[in-house]
Specification:
Blueprint: H1 2-43, E1 56-62, E2 65-71, E3 78-86, E4 94-95, E5 99-101, E6 106-112, E7 117-124, E8 129-132
């Protein structure tokens, strides 16, 4: 019985040693292949996304008055414009003059209707709009 146990341990040790040797030989091959796959992906990668830009605007409507605060956290300037649509047919809709928002700055835009405001929104020079009703 002792002889069988010794042979089993010997086989187990030799199998473990052989497995370690095979793994030691395969790891560099796998790393080499992974490096070539990564290099191929880097060569065919997509163009980088454009730098984020544009002001974040918060618009509030209270009765017949509209106020918008626009803050620009990005390094490029933005131009914003407040648009107000009045609820009554006889009330004149208004568009504010475009205002430049420098990087790291906040601007206040305001407008009003004679009676009630139907909706108000801010447009950016890039053409994006954020509409509030």
């Amino acid at each position: 019985m002792r002889g069988t146990r010794h042979r089993t341990r010997s086989r187990t040790r030799s199998l473990l040693a052989a497995s370690a040797a095979v793994a030691g030989l395969l790891v560099p091959v796998g790393l080499y292949a992974a490096g070539h796959v990564g290099a191929a992906r880097a060569a065919t990668s997509h163009a980088p996304d454009p730098e984020p830009s544009g002001s974040e605007c918060r618009t509030s409507v209270q009765g017949s008055r509209v106020v918008a605060y626009c803050h620009n956290p990005y390094p490029s300037a933005d131009r914003v414009q407040l648009h107000t649509e009045c609820a009554r047919w006889w009330d004149i809709d208004a568009d504010s003059a475009p205002v430049a928002v420098a990087p790291g700055r906040t601007v206040r835009l305001d407008a009003r209707c004679w009676k009630d405001v139907d909706s108000a929104w801010v447009t950016h020079a890039a053409g994006t709009t954020a509409k509030v009703s």
